[in-house]
Amino acid sequence: MRAFGFLSFGHYGHGRGPGDPSARDMLHEAIELSVGADEIGVNGAYFRVHHFARQAAAPMPLLSAIAARTRHIEVGTGVIDLRYENPLYLAEEAAALDLISDGRVALGVSRGSPEPALRGWEAFGYAGSTDPRGADLARPKFEQFMAAIRGEGMADADPAQFGRTGKLAIEPHSPGLDRRIWWGAGTRETAEWAATQGVNLMSSTLLTEATGDAFADLQAEQIERYRAAWRAAGHEHTPRVSVSRSIFPLINDVDRSYFGLRGQQGRDQVGVIDGFTSTFGKTYAAEPDELIEQLKGDAAVQAADTVMLTIPTQLGVDYNLHVLNAFAEHVAPALGWRPNTDGPVEGYPIGHQA
Fold this sequence. Notes:
- This protein is of the alpha/beta class and 354 residues long.
- It has one domain (3-342): TIM Barrel (Alpha-Beta Barrel).
- 40% of the residues lie in helices and 19% in strands.
- It is built from 13 helices and 14 strands.
- The chain has helices at 23-40, 59-69, 87-100, 120-123, 135-149, 159-162, 188-197, 215-233, 253-264, 288-296, 299-303, 316-330, 332-335, and strands at residues 3-8, 44-47, 74-81, 105-110, 155-156, 167-168, 181-185, 200-203, 206-207, 241-249, 269-273, 276-280, 283-286, 306-310.
- An eight-stranded parallel beta barrel has the order 1-2-3-4-7-8-10-14, surrounded by eight helices. Strands 9-12-11 form a three-stranded antiparallel sheet, covered by helices on one side.
- Helix 2 links the parallel strand 2 (44-47) and strand 3 (74-81).
- Helix 3 (87-100) crosses helix 5 (135-149).
- The chain is globular and about 70 Å long.
- It starts with a strand and ends in a 19-residue tail after the last helix.
- 45% of the residues are buried.
C-alpha cells in the first residue's frame, strides 16, 4: 500500500439533526471532509454514485468543488454507472474536472451495481438493452467514452461552418486523462478485460464470485490476473490498483463503542446480489498494533497501491476526520503509506506480488 483515501457512499436523510443530514448537508460536509483530509495528507477523496436513492448521484459538481478547494488530494468516483450516462457528455465533464484539478482525477466507471429503480437507465433515456441488468449498455458506452477523452473524432464537421469535412473531437481535451480512468471490476475475468483496455483497476467492495477462498485472497488473485493480462497486452505505462476496506483504528472509548464489537465479529460474508453469489469483505476494527498485523496479512491490501477506507458519513465531519487521522498517524506508515505531499501516487511495478 502506497496511498489511502476515503470512499463515501454519500448517504443523506431528511435533515432532522445529527445522523440525519439533508442532501445539502451531505454535499457541504463532503467538501469540508475533503479539505480536512487534504491537510492530513490523505491521498484520495472518492464517492459512490447511485440513482433514485438518498445517496450521492451527481459527482462532477461535487468533485469540482473539492478540487477547487484542495491542493494535493486525488478526486474520483467508485464508481459511475455507465448505464445512466451519455458517454460524450461524461467525457466533456471529465476533461473539465481534470483540468480544474490539474490532473488529480481518479475516475472509476463500470456497469454499476443494482439500483432501486427497475431498469432505471431507461428513465434516463437509454433504452434498447436486452439484458435485465442492462449490462450490454455499459461496455459500448465505455469504448465511446475512452475514444472521446483520447481526442478521437466523434462527430462530422459541418462544412458550412468549418469549410472542410472530417471528424470533430469533444472539447475540452485533457491530455493523459485516459491514464486516470479506472474500471470497477467485480470478477477476475472483468479485471482481465480492464487490463486489455489499458485502464486502472478498482477492485469492487464485493466480488460477484464465491469460491470458498477468503475475500482478500480472492481479490489478490484478481489483482494478479489483472497484472498478468496487462503484461500480455504490452501496455507501456504502469497501472494503478485500488481496493476498498472498512478499517477503524480503536483509539478511544468512542471508537470502541462504535466499532469494537464489529472488530470482534469481523469475518467475510457471502450473499446474493444481482442474481450472483457474492463475497463481501469483513470489517477491520482493532487497536493500531493489532490492526497493522491484520492488514499486513491481507493479501489484497498488500498487492494494491491504494486502499479506500469506507467511512460512516452519517457520523459527521469531525468523527470521520478523526478516523482518517488515526489511520494516517498510527497505522498507514507501517504499511508503506506516502502522504499526498510526496506527489501523485504511482502504481507498483507490473511484476509486483503481494
